[in-house]
Write a structure and sequence with these properties.
The chain is α/β, with parallel strands linked by helices. The strands form 2 sheets. A 7-stranded parallel β-sheet has the order 3-2-1-4-5-6-9, with helices on both faces. Strands 7-8 form a two-stranded parallel ribbon. It contains 9 helices and 9 strands. Helix 4 runs parallel beside helix 5. It has a single domain, classed as NAD(P)-binding Rossmann-like Domain (Rossmann fold, 3-Layer(aba) Sandwich). About 50% of the residues lie in helices and about 15% in strands. It binds NADP nicotinamide-adenine-dinucleotide phosphate (NAP).
């Protein structure tokens, strides 16, 4: 029997806004079938309106294990495999160390960590099935440049991103024979609703379309680590090689100057 190859299929979480929205647009423009996941049905509808044939919206609260499982079951009925899954949904809350509460930790971990795990649970079997199409799959985790230094007020956000990076890097070890390539992405500052509430200067800030384009280029090259923009990478990595005492001293100075 002469069966045509299944369409290139991409799943993107957090596709209703910012980086995820631009990634979804980018892959839709390339003709991929895109499963766009987020809570906001209305904002996902904007993607569907532009690409009704290619975009499948999935309204889901990924911080809920039950809701994610329900979404995963529905997705399994719609598609046979995934070529690419980008686990991007996330949030940021800053911690007030002088008045420490659980709240920012719970909020951030609920989506950045639990949400990533909940998505992985239903994505991984679909990525494994990409092999049946004679293609290698790709799993992408969106971390942050914040993961490489102990940034001020970032105790919750930084911890969530380090957890995600560890998860993805150790998956790489165990998935060596599964034909699934893994990419970790560390964006610098990107102009999105997430960073709109930041009350400090954001050096080398990029637009969301620029960030999406950098991420897509890295994914195309099947890079293990995608970091941008390069001037910020240079600054951050130069500080990261210093002894921890020097890193903390410098970050305290920068933090006081803000
Ligand atoms: N912007 C930056 O400077 C920057 C830098 C480094 C890393 N990042 C990372 O990049 C990713 C995207 O950030 P962004 O700046 O594009 O933020 P954004 O514009 O606020 O988008 C966040 C996305 O996550 C979705 N989301 C949040 N909670 C969710 C939940 N419980 N269930 C399902 N979807 C949920 C949101 O959709 P709904 O609200 O519709 O659910 C939205 O689509 C995040 O992981 C962030 O940490 C951003």
């Amino acid at each position: 029997m002469n069966s045509s190859p299944a369409p290139y299929t991409v799943l993107i979480t957090g596709a209703s806004s910012g980086i995820g929205y631009e990634l979804a647009l980018g892959y839709l423009k390339q003709g991929a079938r895109v499963l766009a996941l987020a809570r906001s049905e209305q904002r996902l509808a904007q993607l569907v309106a532009q690409f009704p044939e290619l975009c499948l919206p999935v309204t889901v609260d990924l911080s809920s294990a039950e809701d994610s499982q329900r979404a995963g079951e529905w997705i399994n009925q719609q598609i046979q495999h995934l070529d690419l899954a980008i686990l991007n949904a996330g949030t940021c809350e800053y911690v007030d160390v002088a008045n420490l509460t659980r709240e920012p930790f719970d909020k951030v971990m609920a989506i950045n960590w639990q949400g990533t795990l909940n998505t992985l649970l239903f994505c991984l079997p679909l990525l494994r099935r990409c092999k049946e199409q004679g293609r290698r799959a790709q799993l992408v985790g969106i971390s942050s440049m914040a993961s490489i230094l102990p940034m001020p007020r970032s105790q919750a956000y930084g911890a969530s991103k380090i957890a995600v990076e560890y998860l993805f890097n150790s998956l790489r070890v165990d998935l060596a024979s599964a034909a699934i390539d893994i990419t970790v992405v560390r964006p610098g500052f990107v102009k999105t609703p997430l960073t709109q509430r930041n009350d400090f200067s954001m050096p080398f800030e990029q637009t969301a379309p620029m960030a999406a384009s950098n991420i897509m280029q890295g994914i195309n090259k099947r890079k293990w680590l995608v970091q941008f923009p390069w001037p910020l990478v240079l600054v951050m990595r130069s500080i990261a090689v210093l002894p921890l005492r020097a890193q903390v001293w410098l970050l305290q100075k920068i933090s006081r100057a803000q």
